[in-house]
UniProtKB/TrEMBL annotation:
Membrane topology of the entry: Multi-pass membrane protein
TM ranges: 12-32, 91-113, 125-146, 158-178, 185-204, 312-335, 347-367, 374-394, 434-452
Annotated localization: Cell membrane
Any Gene Ontology CC annotation: plasma membrane
Domain of life, per lineage: Bacteria
Keywords linked to the UniProt accession: Cell membrane, Membrane, Transmembrane, Transmembrane helix
Protein name: Uncharacterized protein
The species this protein was found in: Eiseniibacteriota bacterium
Length: 453
């Protein structure tokens, strides 16, 4: 029995490491990037770029239309059936849709850059940064489809190549451009990450993907294929846009209420907490989701959720608690000593990240179990809770802590609501599982509350 248990944890660790490899590379590149920005642009510059990058991600997601999910599904089925023509048609149909929507989104961003800058940062002076970020918007849109292509072929190498090539070129550009061009150099360095990563991944793995990237002789995009792709993509796209849009709106108000420098400190705290959480999200998305998709009904989904709950939640709590205890050294290492004011913000951000890990772990089987009707409402709980919590904390005078505390409240509330919804569908947790989550949440809240009252 001990040998079997050891083998089980060993296999989980290996799969976790493989699924998290690209995330680790992205995290390392992000650490280097944030450190360089902090040294040359300080908190105010980091706060400005954080808004620009958030807008870049939101517009890129809109341009990508959530095509990654349906592309992954069709490519997976075509690969299993050895149907290269179907895979090729799907990829080129997705690229055709991207060309249309991407052109509209990028053109709109270029045309209304001043208005976007005014809405995000309270000034039209940063319109040039918005225009530069349109390079990244196009790259994000293409990347989403390529992620679906890679996932459909169960390819872990190509995403890692994307991270290494794109992140490496972006960091090199940052070293060269930021000292000379400041904010413009930083915006350009991050914008080229996505197109460089896409080109690099396809170039390195060109032999693997040549059959599906060769243009088909017949017309790729047909009305029927477009409807099938967009029907699946619609719910995922709407959920992503709502969540990212809520974050962007709340952050924009936070900037106007507390200043750009405070937003820089907030970005530092959120970035560290998200880097810790991304390790667990990568495992859940790259491995666990595929496994739970094959679970038979509510009983199988419940068994798989319980099986993985403690092995996910317990290490997540330990990692987030360790990050909280080492907050000051981490901020000095990853940013600079001038980011000490970010420590209390980071403390509450870690609470929210723990809640979101619990949310994703419990909701993992919602899409296979109940389809979009079950998964989509659960996906809206966090952004809705965030907006409500932020409004309450901002009105109560929480100041710079309004956003971190709202994030913490929304993360925990979303996990609880998800638990109630999934329990009604038969996916319940055991008493020990609930105790593990409650204990981790209580420890993180006490650590945050002990320093900030």
């Amino acid at each position: 029995m001990p040998d079997a248990r050891f083998a089980l944890w060993r296999d989980r660790s290996l799969r976790f490491s493989m699924g998290a490899s690209a995330t680790v590379v992205n995290g390392l590149m992000g650490i280097i990037r944030n450190k360089w920005f902090a040294q040359h642009l300080e908190a105010s510059g980091l706060g400005i770029l954080a808004q620009v990058f958030s807008n870049q991600a939101w517009l890129g997601t809109a341009a990508g239309m959530g095509l990654g999910l349906p592309v992954a599904r069709v490519i997976g089925a075509a690969t299993a059936a050895d149907d290269q023509p179907a895979a090729r048609r799907t990829v080129w149909a997705a690229f055709t849709l991207l060309a249309m929507t991407g052109s509209v989104v990028v053109a709109g961003g270029l045309l209304f850059a001043a208005q976007i800058s005014q809405a995000l940062l309270g000034s039209a002076a940063y319109a040039g940064l918005i225009r530069i970020s349109m390079i990244g918007v196009a790259g994000v849109a293409v990347q989403q489809t390529l992620v679906g292509l890679f996932a459909g072929r169960s390819d872990l190498r190509a995403p890692l190549t994307f991270s290494i090539v794109g992140g490496g070129i972006s960091v090199l550009a940052m070293f060269l451009l930021v000292p000379r061009w400041g904010l413009q150099g930083g915006a350009l360095a991050v914008a080229i990450l996505f197109p460089a990563g896409c080109v690099g991944a396809l170039a390195v793995h060109r032999r693997t993907y040549a059959p599906v990237l060769t243009p088909p002789r017949e017309r790729a995009l047909t009305p029927g294929l477009a409807r099938s792709l967009l029907a699946v993509a619609g719910a995922g796209l709407l959920a992503s846009l709502v969540e990212q849009g809520t974050f962007l709106t709340v952050r924009s108000h936070y900037v106007r209420a507390n200043g750009i420098e405070a937003n820089g400190f907030l970005q530092a705290g959120l970035s560290i907490s998200q880097q810790v959480g991304s390790l667990f999200y990568a495992y859940l998305a790259s491995y666990a989701f595929g496994k739970i998709s094959g679970a038979p009904g509510a009983e199988g989904t419940r068994a798989y959720t319980r099986k993985h709950w403690t092995p996910i939640i317990l290490p997540a709590a330990a990692a987030l608690i360790a990050a909280r205890l080492g907050a000051t050294p981490l901020l000095h290492l990853l940013y600079s000593h001038r980011f000490d004011p970010a420590e209390p913000l980071m403390a509450w951000a870690l609470v929210g990240e723990f809640g979101r890990i619990g949310l994703m772990t419990w909701a993992l089987g919602s899409l296979p179990l109940g389809g979009a009707r079950l998964w989509f409402p659960i996906s809206l709980v966090f952004p809705v809770a965030l907006a409500i919590a932020y409004a309450l904390f901002a009105a109560s005078g929480a100041g710079v802590l309004s956003m971190p505390k709202a994030n913490a409240s929304a993360g925990l509330a979303a996990a609880c609501v998800c638990g109630m919804v999934m329990s009604r569908r038969g996916v319940t947790l055991g008493a020990r599982d609930i105790a593990v989550f409650a204990g981790g949440a209580a420890a993180l809240i006490l650590l945050a509350w002990g320093r900030v009252r």
